[in-house]
Write a structure and sequence with these properties.
By secondary structure, the protein is an alpha+beta fold. Helices cover 26% and strands 31% of the residues. A five-stranded mixed β-sheet has the order 5-6-7-8-9, with helices on one face. Strands 1-2-3-4 form a four-stranded antiparallel β-sheet, with no helix packed on it. Strand 7 and strand 8 form a beta hairpin. The N and C termini lie far apart (78 Å).
């Protein structure tokens, strides 16, 4: 491992630029940089080594048994690797992140709330227009968001409408 010194210029991952850029070493401990300054944006942060890319996997050499044809052996190896790849893809389900789980739960809750509100109102939907006036509990048919219900009026010229994908704040003329 090479030894670094304060003031030396090295490449590091910048936490602000989010890229590998040139950095000045600001502090070292036992020859290892701990604090660096980005030469591009000027931010001072902990040293983060440039990301090392994993070496590309080389294909295995095709073994040809004595007395067999090379073309047949290569074809069989390609079929085996394709089958193994299909098995790996089928066996490894994609992990779902917590943020994706939260987004799905939020969408399901919005859908449930929307259904509850729309089912309570038995009136015909009114087409949405910015210059029209609406009252609380009115069903609104929006050209983009679809069917929604007015859940809150916000003077002087706004209203909250609950649509299938969630609440939206729309412009309107309030009743006097």
């Amino acid at each position: 491992m090479s030894s670094y010194q304060t003031g030396q210029i090295i490449e590091a991952r910048c936490t602000r630029c989010r890229d590998v850029t040139g950095h000045n070493i600001m502090a070292c401990v036992d020859g290892v940089p701990v604090k660096v300054e980005c030469r591009a944006c000027g931010s001072v942060h902990k040293y983060a080594a440039p990301v090392q890319r994993a070496p590309e996997r080389r294909e295995k050499a095709v073994r040809i048994k004595a007395g067999s044809d090379r073309g047949t052996a290569v074809e069989a190896a390609v079929k085996r690797s394709a089958a193994a790849e299909q098995v790996r893809a089928a066996a490894a389900p994609k992990p779902v992140s917590k943020s994706e789980q939260k987004a799905v739960m939020k969408a399901e809750q919005a859908e449930k709330d929307w259904k509850a509100v729309v089912d309570r109102i038995a009136a015909e939907p009114v087409p949405y227009a910015m210059d029209a006036s609406f009252s609380l509990g009115t069903l609104v048919m929006h050209p983009v968001f679809g069917l929604g219900a007015v859940v809150e009026l916000l003077p002087p010229d706004k209203m909250d409408v609950l649509f299938r994908e969630g609440p939206k704040r729309l412009r309107c003329a309030l009743e006097k």
